[in-house]
């Protein structure tokens, strides 16, 4: 059974940083690509970043490029999202996603406000 558990969300002031983690279990983590999505209140869920199974290839949404970085530690079955220079519009629930299985975590809230 695929299980994804996010952590690391919280409250941060504009310009601050957060690092999200997603602990995966129930599948051979290093065989599969992983992604992060987010959903702001009243908006549709949107793609944030993706990473290949090896970690050699990454993709970040244009609006977050240069500020967000996705990475993974296959030995620890964990995928990360480093978020820098956060803006109020980054406020959302952030979800870890295992595309092959269409698996989703429960989400972690990120609030950017002064």
Textual characterization of the structure:
With 114 residues, the chain is mostly beta strands. It is 0% helix and 50% strand. It has strands at residues 3-7, 10-12, 18-25, 34-39, 46-51, 58-60, 68-73, 78-83, 92-98, 103-104, 108-112. The strands form 2 sheets. Strands 2, 4, 5, 6, 9, 10 and 11 form a 7-stranded mixed beta sheet that branches. It has a 4-stranded antiparallel beta sheet with strand order 1-3-8-7, with no helix packed on it. Strand 4 (34-39) and strand 5 form a beta hairpin. The mean pLDDT is 97.
Coarse shape: globular
Percent of residues in helices comes to: under 10%
Order of helices and strands: EEEEEEEEEEE
Straight-line N-to-C gap: 40 Å
Q: What percentage of the residues does DSSP assign to strands (E)? A: over 45%
Number of strands: 11
What's the overall average pLDDT, rounded?
A: 97
Keywords:
globular, 114 residues, mainly beta
How does the SSE layout of this entry go?
Layout (H helix, E strand, L loop, with lengths): L2 E5 L2 E3 L5 E8 L8 E6 L6 E6 L6 E3 L7 E6 L4 E6 L8 E7 L4 E2 L3 E5 L2
